[in-house]
Structures are given as structure tokens and as C-alpha cells.
Amino acid sequence: MSQLEELLAVWMPRQRWFSGKGIPIRNIRVESRHTLVSAGPEGPDLNLLVVRAGQRGRSSRYQVLLGSRSSRSLPAELAGAAIGVHQAPGGRSRVVYDAANDAQLTAMLLERFAAPSAAGHVRFRTLPGERIRTGSSGRVLTGEQSNTSLVFGEDYVLKTFRRVWPGPNPDLELNRALYGSPYVARPCGWIEADLPGYAEPTTLAMLQDYIPGASDGWVLATADAEALTRGADRAARTSFTGDAALLGRTTAEVHRALARTLPTDVLSVTAVAELADAMVERLAMASAEVPELAEHAPLVMEAYAEFAQVDEPLPIQRIHGDYHLGQVIRTGSGGWVLLDFEGEPTVSVAERRQLASPLRDVAGMLRSFDYAAGYLLVDHPGDEGLEWSARSWARANREAFCRGYADGGGADPEKHLVVLRAFEFDKAVYEVLYEARNRPHWLRVPLESIAAAAAPPVPR
């Protein structure tokens, strides 16, 4: 390994967006390096790196925006972003760092969109007629895990996709398909690159309008649930159920817009049975890794068996793919906007671009309401009163969301309980694996949801 690769091998596993945490890096290689900004011997350089990290049984590519300065010109505020000291060609000693934290370089990055290019290995593209307002620098948006987003004033947000996959990213693809919709942040441009070994251009980043003053759906929901469970005066609080119903309607309208713009199909009865078999396989794998799940497996298997017997074709289309309360924001006008159409970031882009039942998104949001309730219970095991209040809150909001989804023109969840229940269990099994591997103290949240799911998921 080169000196730079050795530095990256130490730095990358400590980053939130690195997907292979806990697994030793066996080899690391900078596969491509593209200079975006070069400001002379003392000024900062900005290089876009594609780095391949080889770990046990897996190999992943990541995007690194690498800043470089001489040690004497490194501002004090960038010391925490330093990766290490690197010997540049010519014997010059340079400090390399995460350029996402450099106001000067991020401002230059935005300027590249003002003069988009259709040539070269790395291209800055904008939608026709789009004029980019420059003059602001980016600040890193906290809270993201698999990607890094930079907010430029109150104008734009640039989402950089840290893990690199071949082809167009679904987030860009679906946002472009929904262009003009009031339910998404307007896409403005993107960065794409021709990378070694990939047959088609790869999306590296997406520029969208920033929506100032918006509130995170998860924060709103958990705050409301906590207020209820703590006995807040009902007259003094605004119930979230109205928001949940509006979110359901918004979700249905987004699904309908995607179905109008992008391909649709139906799964045959045979294909539905094969989908049920895949769910059974995932359950078996998860049960082998998490023994606590095995005792609930018979209940889940019953739901999958019912799903396998569905005797009518299942409509499929492009969907969000990783839908939960953390993927929606409520604007100042009270409407909902959907974010992050990237899909599940741990699977390949090819898999994420496949058509699926929109009821998968419905199931994901219903699981999220359960999670908002379970979030309050994690540190209070055995508190029956708190549990009753939290579960009641979840049921009310699940019902409101489903009612809104049907009112918005989506498939009525009440009429597709067998399908919805199977998708919910499949999502819960995924959650069990995730929590066991990443947050063991949260494992009870999906396990208790599975245990309590003997009743239909949308009780009346």
C-alpha cells in the first residue's frame, strides 16, 4: 500500500458512512483520482478519490473528497478533519483531510455546477435551464450515516454518495422522475463519473433545493408519542394522527406519480410464491444468527405461508425502498416532503432499481410507527402502563396513515392485510439482524413487534 492508502485504511473505518465496521481491512487501493481544484503550492487542493476496501469476503468502493494543504496553511478549524501527513510528488509534505469540512473548497465545488461540463471523466451536470446560485460554502449536515450532505446557505443541499455503485443512483433517478412534484425537493444537478470496470456512468452526488425550516418526521413523531405517554394534557397538544393521515395521502400520491412516469408490472401468482420463499430464507438466516428470533419463527412462517397462497397478481413499480419517519420532513406550510429515494444502501443499485409492491413502503412506515413507540420503551422494560400508552399511540397513527394512503388513491391496506403483514414481518426480520449487529440494546423493539403481531397489523 502507498502512504496515502495506509492513512485511509486507518481513517475510513472510523467514519459513520463506512459500511464494513468491525471487519478488518485486508487491502485498500485508490482506484482513481481526479483533481477538481488545484490552488498552487500553499493553497488547497481538492481531489475526488474512489477507494476500494477489501475485507473478509467482501469488497466495497467508496468516494472520498480529499483536501490537501501545506501544514502551515491548514486552518485551525480543519485540524479535526485531518487524515494525516502525506508526502506529495516532489517531496512536498501535505496535510490531507476530509474536504467536506473545508468552507473554501466546498464553495469551489458549488461553483463547478455553475459551469457544467459534459466532457471528461468527472462531469458536473445540471437540468436544462437551471442556473446555480454560487457564493456560499457548504456545512456538513449532521445525522446522516451512509452518505454526507452539504448545505449551501438556504439554497441547496449536495448529497454525496459515499459508497459507490455502478450506474445511476435511484435517488437521482426517482427525484428526476418526480420533478415538479410538491412532495420532493427539486433536483438541480448531479456529479457523474466514468470509473474503471463500470460500463455506465456512476452517480457520485446530487444537488437539490434545500428546504429551510422543515422538521424531521422522526423527531416530530417521537416527541408526540413521548408527550402522550407522559400524560400531557390532550387539549394542550396537537395529535400526530392528522399528520400521519396526511403522510399516508402524500405517500400514495408519490406512488401514483412514479407509476405514471416509470415502468410498472405485475407479479404472477408463481412469482409471489417465489417472493415468499425468499422471505423464508431470510428468516432462517436471521434465526440462525439471532436465537431470540427463533421462538417467534413459527408465527412468521404462518404469515409467509398465507402470502404464498395469494391467488391474484401483485402490482409492482418503482418505490422509495427504505421508507420510514426519518425519510420525511414536514415543511413550514404543514405539508410532507419525501427524502432519500436511494433505497436500502446495503444492497446493490441493480437490486434497488427493481420493481416492487408499493405496499413494501407502506409496511416500512408502519414499522417506523412501531419503532417510535418502541424507542420510548427501550430504557423502561416492564413498565406496563408506559407500554400500553406507547402501543396505543402506534396503533392510532398506523390506522391514520393507512386511511390516508387509501384516501390518496393507494391500494387500501385494509383490503391487502395478508400481503402487508408479510412485508411487515420481512422488514422486522431485517431489523432484528440490524439491531443484533449494531445496537443490541434495541433488539427488543423488533422482537416485541413480532411477538405482538398475532393480530392483523392494521386493527380497527
TrEMBL record:
Keywords associated with the record: ATP-binding, Carbohydrate metabolism, Glycogen biosynthesis, Glycogen metabolism, Kinase, Nucleotide-binding, Transferase
Catalytic reaction list: D-maltose + ATP = alpha-maltose 1-phosphate + ADP + H(+)
InterPro entries: Aminoglycoside_PTrfase, Kinase-like_dom_sf, Mak_N_cap
Pfam families recorded: APH, Mak_N_cap
Pathway named in the protein's UniProt entry: Glycan biosynthesis; glycogen biosynthesis
Domain Aminoglycoside phosphotransferase: 244-369
EC number(s) recorded for this UniProt protein: 2.7.1.175
Sequence ranges assigned to domain Maltokinase N-terminal cap in this UniProt record: 11-102
Catalytic class of the enzyme: transferase
Statement: the UniProt record of this protein carries the keyword Plastid: no
Assembly and binders: Monomer.
Family classification: Belongs to the aminoglycoside phosphotransferase family.
Protein name: Maltokinase
